[in-house]
Amino acid sequence: MPQAQVVIMLSLMLGMQALTTDLYLPALPLLRSDLAASMPQVQLTLTALLICFGVSQLAWGPIADRWGRRPVLMAGLWSYTLSSLACMLAPSIDTLILWRGVQGVAMGAVVMCARAIVRDLYAPVEGARIMSKALTGLGFMVCISAPVGSLLAEFLGWRASLAGLALFGLCSAIFIHTRFRESLAHRRADATRLGPLVRTWAEILAQPTFRAYALLMMGAFGALFNFLSASSFVLIEVMQLSRLEYGLALLVFSVSYLSGTFLCRRLLMRFGQRHTVRIGALMSFSGGALMFAFNHWGEPSLAGLLLPFLLVMVAHGIHQPISQSGAVAPFPKAAGAASALSGFAMMVVAFAIGHWMGLHLDGTVYPLINGQLFWSLWLAVVGLTLVQRHGERHG
Protein backbone atom coordinates (compact mmCIF):
# COMPACT_ATOMS: atom_id res chain seq x y z
CA MET A 1 0.00 0.00 0.00
CA PRO A 2 1.40 3.47 -0.86
CA GLN A 3 2.39 5.45 2.22
CA ALA A 4 0.02 8.33 1.43
CA GLN A 5 -2.87 5.86 1.20
CA VAL A 6 -1.90 4.28 4.53
CA VAL A 7 -1.82 7.73 6.17
CA ILE A 8 -5.32 8.54 4.87
CA MET A 9 -6.73 5.24 6.14
CA LEU A 10 -5.04 5.68 9.53
CA SER A 11 -6.44 9.22 9.76
CA LEU A 12 -9.96 7.88 9.22
CA MET A 13 -9.49 5.06 11.75
CA LEU A 14 -7.94 7.20 14.46
CA GLY A 15 -10.27 10.10 13.69
CA MET A 16 -13.28 7.96 14.54
CA GLN A 17 -12.63 8.32 18.27
CA ALA A 18 -12.23 12.10 18.12
CA LEU A 19 -15.23 12.67 15.85
CA THR A 20 -17.46 10.44 17.98
CA THR A 21 -16.91 12.81 20.91
CA ASP A 22 -16.23 16.20 19.25
CA LEU A 23 -19.16 16.22 16.82
CA TYR A 24 -21.42 15.26 19.72
CA LEU A 25 -20.23 17.66 22.42
CA PRO A 26 -22.13 20.81 21.36
CA ALA A 27 -25.38 18.79 21.45
CA LEU A 28 -25.07 17.65 25.09
CA PRO A 29 -27.10 20.47 26.70
CA LEU A 30 -29.83 20.00 24.06
CA LEU A 31 -29.84 16.25 24.59
CA ARG A 32 -30.20 16.67 28.33
CA SER A 33 -33.24 18.90 27.86
CA ASP A 34 -34.91 16.87 25.10
CA LEU A 35 -34.58 13.49 26.85
CA ALA A 36 -35.16 14.91 30.37
CA ALA A 37 -31.83 13.42 31.48
CA SER A 38 -29.80 14.12 34.59
CA MET A 39 -26.19 15.32 34.46
CA PRO A 40 -24.80 11.86 35.43
CA GLN A 41 -26.91 10.26 32.68
CA VAL A 42 -25.60 12.71 30.09
CA GLN A 43 -22.03 12.03 31.21
CA LEU A 44 -22.77 8.32 30.92
CA THR A 45 -23.42 8.70 27.18
CA LEU A 46 -19.71 9.57 26.97
CA THR A 47 -18.33 7.22 29.60
CA ALA A 48 -20.36 4.20 28.37
CA LEU A 49 -18.93 4.78 24.90
CA LEU A 50 -15.39 4.98 26.23
CA ILE A 51 -15.63 2.12 28.74
CA CYS A 52 -16.88 -0.24 26.03
CA PHE A 53 -14.25 1.16 23.68
CA GLY A 54 -11.49 0.34 26.16
CA VAL A 55 -12.70 -3.05 27.40
CA SER A 56 -13.50 -4.35 23.91
CA GLN A 57 -9.92 -3.78 22.79
CA LEU A 58 -8.77 -6.49 25.21
CA ALA A 59 -10.69 -8.94 23.02
CA TRP A 60 -10.10 -7.30 19.64
CA GLY A 61 -6.30 -7.20 20.04
CA PRO A 62 -5.74 -10.98 20.38
CA ILE A 63 -8.38 -11.68 17.71
CA ALA A 64 -6.52 -9.39 15.29
CA ASP A 65 -3.20 -11.08 16.14
CA ARG A 66 -4.81 -14.48 15.44
CA TRP A 67 -6.94 -13.84 12.32
CA GLY A 68 -5.49 -10.63 10.93
CA ARG A 69 -6.34 -6.92 10.93
CA ARG A 70 -8.73 -6.79 7.97
CA PRO A 71 -11.64 -8.92 9.31
CA VAL A 72 -11.57 -7.13 12.67
CA LEU A 73 -11.30 -3.73 11.02
CA MET A 74 -14.20 -4.27 8.64
CA ALA A 75 -16.42 -5.74 11.39
CA GLY A 76 -15.73 -2.64 13.46
CA LEU A 77 -16.45 -0.17 10.66
CA TRP A 78 -19.80 -1.68 9.62
CA SER A 79 -20.91 -2.16 13.24
CA TYR A 80 -20.01 1.46 14.01
CA THR A 81 -22.14 2.69 11.12
CA LEU A 82 -25.20 0.68 12.20
CA SER A 83 -24.87 1.57 15.89
CA SER A 84 -24.59 5.27 15.00
CA LEU A 85 -27.91 5.01 13.19
CA ALA A 86 -29.43 3.32 16.24
CA CYS A 87 -28.13 6.15 18.46
CA MET A 88 -29.73 8.70 16.17
CA LEU A 89 -33.12 6.98 16.54
CA ALA A 90 -32.89 6.38 20.32
CA PRO A 91 -36.23 7.26 22.02
CA SER A 92 -34.82 7.60 25.55
CA ILE A 93 -31.60 8.36 27.41
CA ASP A 94 -31.28 4.73 28.53
CA THR A 95 -31.53 3.47 24.95
CA LEU A 96 -29.02 6.06 23.82
CA ILE A 97 -26.56 4.96 26.53
CA LEU A 98 -26.97 1.33 25.41
CA TRP A 99 -26.26 2.05 21.76
CA ARG A 100 -23.38 4.37 22.60
CA GLY A 101 -21.85 1.37 24.36
CA VAL A 102 -22.24 -0.74 21.20
CA GLN A 103 -20.74 2.11 19.23
CA GLY A 104 -17.76 2.03 21.60
CA VAL A 105 -17.22 -1.71 21.05
CA ALA A 106 -17.14 -1.17 17.28
CA MET A 107 -14.85 1.84 17.62
CA GLY A 108 -12.47 -0.25 19.73
CA ALA A 109 -11.88 -2.64 16.84
CA VAL A 110 -11.08 0.19 14.42
CA VAL A 111 -8.74 2.26 16.62
CA MET A 112 -6.92 -0.81 17.98
CA CYS A 113 -6.23 -1.97 14.42
CA ALA A 114 -4.85 1.46 13.48
CA ARG A 115 -2.14 1.34 16.16
CA ALA A 116 -1.29 -2.28 15.35
CA ILE A 117 -1.09 -1.59 11.60
CA VAL A 118 1.56 1.09 12.20
CA ARG A 119 3.74 -1.49 14.00
CA ASP A 120 3.05 -4.09 11.29
CA LEU A 121 4.34 -1.82 8.55
CA TYR A 122 6.99 0.44 10.10
CA ALA A 123 9.99 0.45 12.44
CA PRO A 124 9.55 2.44 15.70
CA VAL A 125 10.94 5.86 14.70
CA GLU A 126 9.35 5.76 11.25
CA GLY A 127 6.15 4.58 12.93
CA ALA A 128 6.12 7.70 15.12
CA ARG A 129 6.48 9.90 12.03
CA ILE A 130 3.72 8.05 10.16
CA MET A 131 1.49 8.24 13.23
CA SER A 132 2.16 11.98 13.42
CA LYS A 133 1.09 12.39 9.78
CA ALA A 134 -2.06 10.35 10.41
CA LEU A 135 -2.87 12.44 13.47
CA THR A 136 -2.38 15.57 11.37
CA GLY A 137 -5.12 14.23 9.10
CA LEU A 138 -7.20 13.55 12.20
CA GLY A 139 -6.60 17.16 13.23
CA PHE A 140 -8.07 18.43 9.96
CA MET A 141 -11.17 16.30 10.54
CA VAL A 142 -11.52 17.58 14.10
CA CYS A 143 -11.19 21.16 12.83
CA ILE A 144 -14.21 20.53 10.63
CA SER A 145 -16.17 18.58 13.23
CA ALA A 146 -16.21 21.36 15.83
CA PRO A 147 -18.10 23.98 13.78
CA VAL A 148 -20.14 21.34 11.93
CA GLY A 149 -21.25 19.79 15.23
CA SER A 150 -22.30 23.19 16.52
CA LEU A 151 -24.23 24.02 13.34
CA LEU A 152 -26.00 20.65 13.34
CA ALA A 153 -26.98 21.02 17.00
CA GLU A 154 -28.08 24.64 16.57
CA PHE A 155 -30.26 24.19 13.47
CA LEU A 156 -31.14 20.48 13.25
CA GLY A 157 -30.87 19.18 16.83
CA TRP A 158 -28.77 16.59 18.62
CA ARG A 159 -29.93 13.67 16.45
CA ALA A 160 -28.34 15.28 13.40
CA SER A 161 -24.92 15.05 15.09
CA LEU A 162 -25.32 11.28 15.43
CA ALA A 163 -26.52 11.06 11.81
CA GLY A 164 -23.25 12.73 10.86
CA LEU A 165 -21.33 9.98 12.65
CA ALA A 166 -23.25 7.31 10.75
CA LEU A 167 -22.37 9.02 7.46
CA PHE A 168 -18.70 9.19 8.45
CA GLY A 169 -18.72 5.48 9.37
CA LEU A 170 -20.31 4.52 6.05
CA CYS A 171 -17.85 6.52 3.94
CA SER A 172 -14.86 5.20 5.92
CA ALA A 173 -16.06 1.60 5.62
CA ILE A 174 -16.44 1.86 1.84
CA PHE A 175 -13.05 3.56 1.33
CA ILE A 176 -11.08 1.20 3.58
CA HIS A 177 -12.84 -1.91 2.26
CA THR A 178 -11.63 -1.11 -1.25
CA ARG A 179 -8.09 0.06 -0.32
CA PHE A 180 -6.80 -1.86 2.69
CA ARG A 181 -4.60 -4.92 2.26
CA GLU A 182 -3.86 -7.22 5.18
CA SER A 183 -0.83 -5.82 7.05
CA LEU A 184 -0.13 -8.71 9.44
CA ALA A 185 2.61 -10.85 7.91
CA HIS A 186 2.55 -13.70 10.44
CA ARG A 187 -0.59 -14.68 12.35
CA ARG A 188 -0.21 -16.17 15.84
CA ALA A 189 -2.26 -19.34 16.14
CA ASP A 190 -2.14 -19.22 19.96
CA ALA A 191 -3.02 -15.50 20.28
CA THR A 192 -6.56 -16.15 21.55
CA ARG A 193 -5.76 -19.09 23.84
CA LEU A 194 -6.10 -18.06 27.48
CA GLY A 195 -2.75 -19.33 28.75
CA PRO A 196 -0.56 -17.76 26.05
CA LEU A 197 -2.71 -14.62 26.11
CA VAL A 198 -2.22 -14.11 29.84
CA ARG A 199 1.53 -14.67 29.42
CA THR A 200 1.62 -12.17 26.56
CA TRP A 201 -0.20 -9.55 28.63
CA ALA A 202 2.18 -10.18 31.56
CA GLU A 203 5.21 -9.73 29.28
CA ILE A 204 3.78 -6.51 27.85
CA LEU A 205 2.99 -5.05 31.28
CA ALA A 206 6.46 -6.00 32.54
CA GLN A 207 8.12 -4.01 29.75
CA PRO A 208 9.31 -0.64 31.15
CA THR A 209 9.10 1.01 27.73
CA PHE A 210 5.46 -0.01 27.36
CA ARG A 211 4.63 1.27 30.84
CA ALA A 212 6.32 4.62 30.22
CA TYR A 213 4.53 5.29 26.94
CA ALA A 214 1.20 3.87 28.12
CA LEU A 215 1.27 6.21 31.12
CA LEU A 216 2.17 9.10 28.82
CA MET A 217 -0.78 8.18 26.58
CA MET A 218 -3.08 8.02 29.62
CA GLY A 219 -1.97 11.45 30.77
CA ALA A 220 -2.37 13.04 27.34
CA PHE A 221 -5.84 11.56 26.94
CA GLY A 222 -6.74 12.55 30.51
CA ALA A 223 -5.82 16.18 29.85
CA LEU A 224 -7.95 16.18 26.71
CA PHE A 225 -10.95 14.26 28.04
CA ASN A 226 -11.06 16.29 31.26
CA PHE A 227 -11.65 19.38 29.15
CA LEU A 228 -14.04 17.75 26.68
CA SER A 229 -16.26 16.14 29.32
CA ALA A 230 -16.82 19.46 31.11
CA SER A 231 -16.31 22.14 28.48
CA SER A 232 -19.78 22.22 26.92
CA PHE A 233 -21.37 22.86 30.32
CA VAL A 234 -18.69 25.22 31.62
CA LEU A 235 -18.35 27.30 28.45
CA ILE A 236 -22.01 27.33 27.37
CA GLU A 237 -23.84 27.38 30.72
CA VAL A 238 -21.29 29.06 33.03
CA MET A 239 -19.36 31.35 30.67
CA GLN A 240 -22.47 32.00 28.52
CA LEU A 241 -21.02 31.15 25.11
CA SER A 242 -23.47 30.30 22.35
CA ARG A 243 -23.22 26.86 20.75
CA LEU A 244 -21.71 28.46 17.66
CA GLU A 245 -19.11 30.30 19.76
CA TYR A 246 -18.37 27.04 21.57
CA GLY A 247 -17.84 25.34 18.21
CA LEU A 248 -15.43 28.11 17.23
CA ALA A 249 -13.47 27.56 20.44
CA LEU A 250 -13.17 23.85 19.64
CA LEU A 251 -12.00 24.79 16.16
CA VAL A 252 -9.20 26.93 17.59
CA PHE A 253 -8.14 24.08 19.88
CA SER A 254 -8.16 21.68 16.94
CA VAL A 255 -5.86 24.01 15.00
CA SER A 256 -3.55 24.12 18.03
CA TYR A 257 -3.49 20.33 18.14
CA LEU A 258 -2.80 20.24 14.42
CA SER A 259 0.16 22.55 14.85
CA GLY A 260 1.43 20.23 17.58
CA THR A 261 1.53 17.26 15.17
CA PHE A 262 3.58 19.31 12.69
CA LEU A 263 5.87 20.44 15.50
CA CYS A 264 6.21 16.84 16.67
CA ARG A 265 7.68 15.72 13.33
CA ARG A 266 10.19 18.56 13.29
CA LEU A 267 11.25 17.91 16.88
CA LEU A 268 11.59 14.16 16.25
CA MET A 269 13.92 14.78 13.32
CA ARG A 270 16.06 17.18 15.32
CA PHE A 271 16.02 15.81 18.87
CA GLY A 272 14.63 12.26 18.89
CA GLN A 273 11.78 10.85 20.94
CA ARG A 274 12.86 11.42 24.53
CA HIS A 275 13.77 15.08 24.19
CA THR A 276 10.63 15.74 22.17
CA VAL A 277 8.56 14.24 24.99
CA ARG A 278 10.44 16.45 27.47
CA ILE A 279 9.43 19.56 25.53
CA GLY A 280 5.81 18.39 25.34
CA ALA A 281 5.69 17.61 29.06
CA LEU A 282 6.91 21.10 29.96
CA MET A 283 4.27 22.63 27.68
CA SER A 284 1.51 20.50 29.22
CA PHE A 285 2.55 21.47 32.72
CA SER A 286 2.72 25.15 31.83
CA GLY A 287 -0.79 25.10 30.36
CA GLY A 288 -2.38 23.35 33.35
CA ALA A 289 -0.53 25.46 35.90
CA LEU A 290 -1.42 28.73 34.17
CA MET A 291 -5.09 27.79 33.92
CA PHE A 292 -5.14 26.99 37.64
CA ALA A 293 -3.32 30.20 38.57
CA PHE A 294 -5.41 32.53 36.39
CA ASN A 295 -8.72 31.21 37.70
CA HIS A 296 -7.90 30.46 41.35
CA TRP A 297 -5.95 33.60 42.09
CA GLY A 298 -8.20 35.93 40.13
CA GLU A 299 -11.73 36.16 38.83
CA PRO A 300 -12.50 33.20 36.51
CA SER A 301 -12.47 34.38 32.91
CA LEU A 302 -12.86 33.02 29.42
CA ALA A 303 -9.31 34.03 28.54
CA GLY A 304 -7.99 32.37 31.69
CA LEU A 305 -9.60 29.11 30.59
CA LEU A 306 -8.96 29.11 26.87
CA LEU A 307 -5.49 30.60 26.40
CA PRO A 308 -3.64 28.11 28.68
CA PHE A 309 -5.50 25.22 27.06
CA LEU A 310 -3.97 26.17 23.71
CA LEU A 311 -0.61 25.11 25.16
CA VAL A 312 -2.13 21.83 26.37
CA MET A 313 -3.45 21.08 22.88
CA VAL A 314 -0.15 21.81 21.15
CA ALA A 315 1.50 19.42 23.61
CA HIS A 316 -1.24 16.86 22.93
CA GLY A 317 -0.19 16.89 19.28
CA ILE A 318 3.32 15.96 20.45
CA HIS A 319 2.40 13.30 23.00
CA GLN A 320 -0.16 11.35 20.98
CA PRO A 321 1.92 10.08 18.03
CA ILE A 322 4.95 9.27 20.17
CA SER A 323 3.05 7.50 22.93
CA GLN A 324 0.79 5.51 20.60
CA SER A 325 3.64 4.24 18.44
CA GLY A 326 6.04 3.88 21.38
CA ALA A 327 3.69 1.64 23.39
CA VAL A 328 3.51 -0.99 20.63
CA ALA A 329 7.09 -0.63 19.33
CA PRO A 330 8.67 -3.36 21.54
CA PHE A 331 6.11 -5.99 20.40
CA PRO A 332 6.26 -6.63 16.63
CA LYS A 333 4.70 -10.10 17.14
CA ALA A 334 2.00 -8.97 19.59
CA ALA A 335 1.17 -5.46 18.40
CA GLY A 336 -2.56 -6.12 18.65
CA ALA A 337 -2.36 -7.15 22.30
CA ALA A 338 -0.08 -4.20 23.16
CA SER A 339 -2.39 -1.79 21.34
CA ALA A 340 -5.36 -3.25 23.20
CA LEU A 341 -3.77 -2.87 26.63
CA SER A 342 -2.73 0.72 26.01
CA GLY A 343 -6.19 1.53 24.68
CA PHE A 344 -7.82 -0.08 27.70
CA ALA A 345 -5.62 1.99 30.02
CA MET A 346 -6.82 5.19 28.35
CA MET A 347 -10.42 4.23 28.83
CA VAL A 348 -9.87 3.58 32.54
CA VAL A 349 -8.87 7.24 32.64
CA ALA A 350 -12.01 8.23 30.71
CA PHE A 351 -14.25 6.31 33.08
CA ALA A 352 -12.66 7.91 36.12
CA ILE A 353 -12.96 11.42 34.67
CA GLY A 354 -16.53 10.94 33.46
CA HIS A 355 -17.64 9.57 36.82
CA TRP A 356 -15.89 12.34 38.72
CA MET A 357 -17.29 15.09 36.48
CA GLY A 358 -20.82 13.67 36.75
CA LEU A 359 -20.60 14.05 40.52
CA HIS A 360 -18.69 17.34 40.76
CA LEU A 361 -19.85 19.62 37.93
CA ASP A 362 -21.51 22.29 40.06
CA GLY A 363 -22.07 25.30 37.83
CA THR A 364 -18.53 26.67 38.36
CA VAL A 365 -15.26 26.44 36.44
CA TYR A 366 -13.35 24.76 39.27
CA PRO A 367 -13.92 21.05 38.51
CA LEU A 368 -12.51 21.70 35.03
CA ILE A 369 -9.43 23.65 36.09
CA ASN A 370 -8.59 21.39 39.04
CA GLY A 371 -8.68 18.40 36.70
CA GLN A 372 -6.38 20.14 34.23
CA LEU A 373 -3.84 20.79 36.98
CA PHE A 374 -3.88 17.10 37.97
CA TRP A 375 -3.25 15.84 34.43
CA SER A 376 -0.59 18.47 33.76
CA LEU A 377 1.30 17.21 36.82
CA TRP A 378 0.85 13.60 35.63
CA LEU A 379 2.34 14.43 32.23
CA ALA A 380 5.24 16.33 33.78
CA VAL A 381 6.17 13.42 36.05
CA VAL A 382 5.85 10.74 33.36
CA GLY A 383 7.42 12.74 30.55
CA LEU A 384 10.35 14.04 32.56
CA THR A 385 11.17 10.81 34.42
CA LEU A 386 9.81 7.50 33.11
CA VAL A 387 10.03 8.28 29.39
CA GLN A 388 13.53 9.71 29.83
CA ARG A 389 14.62 6.55 31.64
CA HIS A 390 12.82 3.86 29.66
CA GLY A 391 11.76 5.41 26.37
CA GLU A 392 13.11 4.11 23.09
CA ARG A 393 16.51 5.64 22.42
CA HIS A 394 16.02 6.38 18.73
CA GLY A 395 17.18 9.46 16.94
What does this protein look like?
By secondary structure, this protein is mostly helical. It has a single domain (3-177, 194-390), classed as Growth Hormone, Chain: A (Up-down Bundle), CATH 1.20.1250.20. 85% of the residues lie in helices and 0% in strands. The longest helix has 32 residues, at 124-155.
In short:
The protein is mainly α and 395 residues long. It has a single domain, classed as Up-down Bundle (Growth Hormone, Chain: A), CATH 1.20.1250.
CATH topology: Growth Hormone, Chain: A
Structure summary, number of beta strands: 0
* Helix proportion: over 70%
The computed structural class is mainly alpha
Say what oligomer this is.
single chain
Which CATH-level-2 architecture? Up-down Bundle
Helix-strand string: HHHHHHHHHHHHHH
Integer average pLDDT: 86
N- to C-terminal separation? 26 Å
Helix run count: 14
CATH class: Mainly Alpha
CATH superfamily: MFS general substrate transporter like domains
**Unreliable segments (pLDDT under 50, ≥5 consecutive)?**
none
Main beta sheet strand tally, sense and closure? none
The share of residues in extended strands comes to under 5%
How many domains in all? 1
